[in-house]
Amino acid sequence: MSDVTVFPSRLCGTVTVPPSKSDVHRAIICAALAKGKSVISPVAFSQDILATLDCIRALGADAQISGSSVTVDSENIFANKNAFLDCRESGSTVRFFIPVAAAGGVSAVFTGHGRLPQRPLGVYTELLPKHGVKCKTGGGLPFETEGSLTPGAFDVPGDVSSQFITGLLFALPLLDGDSVIHLTSPLQSKGYIDMTLDVMRRFGVEVSERDGDFFVKGGQSYTPCSHYETEGDWSQAAFFLTGAALGGDVTVKGVRMDSRQGDKEIADLLRRFGAQVDENENGVRCRGGKLHGIGIDASQIPDLVPVLSVCAAFAEGKTTIYNAQRVRLKESDRLAAMKNALSSCGADIEETDDGLVINGRTSIKGGNADGCNDHRIVMSMAIAALGCSESVTISDAQSISKSYDAFFDDYKSVGGAVVG
Question: What is the pTM of this model?
Fold first, then answer.
């Protein structure tokens, strides 16, 4: 699958979204650090999750897939003192594993593909040499580490990717002394850090938080989890809920209302746009309404920016998305990508330094959209096609395998019309 053509239609019905990629990443890593066997299910084996499984194997753990579950045996974690970790295109994987490998005293080489080698890792080149780890990099990947991580004080900016903080949180409890992560600026994407702490707690490790800093007691042991049940992915639910807001009626099952996922905010944001969103024991139901423009602070919800810009394109009046500058460093420059893709279909959208300004209209024409080899751009433009007067042909559709291989199957199951 390279290009797909998506036709105007109306999404109606029920869809069950895949397990949260963020939850699964974290559970696999905690399981790999626990001495013994853990079973994690359900799991959708996207390219990003397969990258994380490859990395725990590279460090000596074993992972066996059976259906939608994975059994992690961590008995030999860190047995490999020289490891090659191919992170594919997963930013989470590389940023989580760099301090974890260093905590295990592993000399590691990290590589990746697509845009991942260009994504920033400078936080670690600043921090880790102060704590016993030599780093070698030309500015991205390949990234080499040597030495054992030592405990202490880690000063980390809160306005870079929260993935750096999560990586340190995983690693620091393994060390032989106490540590503190001190945030030098306000924390963004806090929901992801809350999720990390919740998952660690389920594997027996505690971290305390005071005045925005994280205090990590050393010498802790992760304990195996005989059955770790994952939760549904709000980031993926956002596509179908937004599609319903454009004039459909969709119930999304599998997501939890008590989730720590920051992207749970999609429900409230769609309400603010004017859609009807209800939560009940069967899931989250969204129905279309008269949409109007709103202001959106994206600092805590960067992954929602592409699909929110689609909703805005069909909402009468002006929508301003701001504090979104970090999404320029994802699989694509997502601000530029959505500006170009929506503009090519007839939307009125402009880039700013840190976001987008969209002057919505009830219908846009359609046309050709560059998917930029970015799963979230491709899926967002498939949602945009619902409200167009003509079809939208989207390039790089195969990129959905990074996170949601079954997206177009699920899209068609609730009425979406796709060829390709």
Answer: 0.92
